[in-house]
Amino acid sequence: MKVAAIGLVLAVAGSSPQVVARIHTGASPGGAVAAFGAVWVANDGAGTLVRIDPRTNRVTRHVRLRPGLFSVASGFGAIWTVNYKRDSLTRVDPASGRTRTVRVGASPFDVLCAFGRVWVTSWEAGLLSQIDPRSLRIVRRIRIGPRPTGLRAAAGAVWVGFGRKATSIARVDPKTATIRRVQVGERAPSWFAAGTRALWIQAADNRLIRVDPRTTRVTARLSFGRTLAQGSLAPDGTIWIPDKEQSLVYRLDPAKARVVDSFAAGPGAFLALNAYGSMWLASYAGDDVWRFEP
Fold it and tell me: C or N: which end of the chain has fewer Cβ atoms within 10 Å?
C-alpha cells in the first residue's frame, strides 16, 4: 500500500486550467449532474434546481423547490434531488420541469440511480432506501448504520460512506441487500470521487483513500489540504478534488497516487463535475459554478 503525506502543492506557473465561465446559479450550489444535454445544479440556499446550457453557459431554467436541496442525480428519464430540510426526494421532469416528491428517511444526504432503483441515504435515520423510479414507492429500507453519507455504484454493488466516528464503508448487494463492511482505517469516509475505476474516498477532512472495489483492499492513502469535498475524474485522466475550506482544487495522478498541483476555484469549492469536455466546480460558499478547460 502506498502512503503519502503532502502539503500544499502549487501549480506550475502557466499550467493551471483556465476558467472559461462563471455562471450564477443561486445561493449555495452543491449537487450537480450532467444529463439531457445540460448541467443541472441544486442550490441549497436558494432552493432551486437550475439548468445550464453548456453551449452558451447560461441558465435556461429554474425549478423552484425549497431550501435544503443537496445532492442530485439523473436516471430513468428524470433528475432526482434530495432535500435534507424536508426529508424528501423529488423527481424533476427535464422537459417540463414538473415535479413529484416522496418523503424518505430523516435528513437525506445523497442520491444514486443504479440497478433499476433510486437509492437514498438518510443521515439521521441511518437508512439506505430503495425507491421505485416510476411509482416513487419505497420498496426497501435497509438499516445501514449511523450517519450514512455518499453513494457510488461500482463492481456490481452499491457503496455507502459514513460520517462522524465511522471508520468503514459498506458494500450492498443490490439484489439481496446483503451488507458487507469494509474497514478503511480513517474516520468519516464520506464522499466517493465520480468516474474513477477504483473507489477514491474522502475521509477525516483531509484524507483520501483508494480502495479496490473487487478485492476491497485499501491500496493508497494520501493526506493533503484542509477540508476535502466531492471529486471527479477529469478528461485528462487526473482526479480533481475540491477543498472547500481553502477554495482550491487539487489535481491527482491516480496511477501514482500523488498530488500534481493545486489552483484557485470559487468560494467554498465543493463539487467537481466532468461534463461536456470541461470541469465544473460548484461554489458552495458562493452562488456560482466555475467552468474550467482542463
Answer: N
Q: How many CB atoms lie within 10 A of CB 70?
A: 20
- Cβ(253)–Cβ(244) under 8 Å? no
CA 102 to chain centre: 21
Cβ contact 160:170 at 8 Å: yes
In whole angstroms, how far apart are CA 264 and each of 128, 209, 225, 228? Answer: 35, 23, 13, 14
Identify the helix (H) or strand (E) that includes residue 183: strand 179-183
pLDDT tens-digit map of 211-269 = 999 999 999 999 999 999 999 999 999 999 999 999 999 999 999 999 999 999 999 99
Nearest to 285 by CA among 243, 252, 251, 250: 243
Rounded-to-integer distance, Cα 156 and Cα 153, Å: 7
Query: pTM for the whole thing?
Result: 0.94
Beta strand 248-253 pairing with 239-243: antiparallel
Q: Which helix (H) or strand (E) holds 101?
A: strand 99-103
Rounded (10°) CA dihedral 177, 180, 182, 187: 60
C-alpha distances (whole Å) from 132 to each of 42, 126, 139, 157 are 22, 20, 6, 18
User: What kind and span of H or E run contains 18?
Assistant: strand 18-24
Give the DSSP per-residue string, 38-70: EEEEEETTTTEEEEEETTTTEEEEEEE--TTEE
Question: Using CA atoms, how far apart are residues 99 and 84, in angstroms rounded to an integer?
Answer: 17
Q: Which long-range contacts (CB under 8 A, 24 or more apart) does 236-245 make?
A: 236/294, 238/294, 239/193, 239/196, 239/200, 240/272, 240/279, 240/281, 240/294, 241/193, 241/202, 241/208, 241/272, 242/269, 242/270, 242/271, 242/272, 242/281, 243/269, 244/268, 244/269, 244/270, 244/284, 244/285
Average pLDDT value for the chain: 95
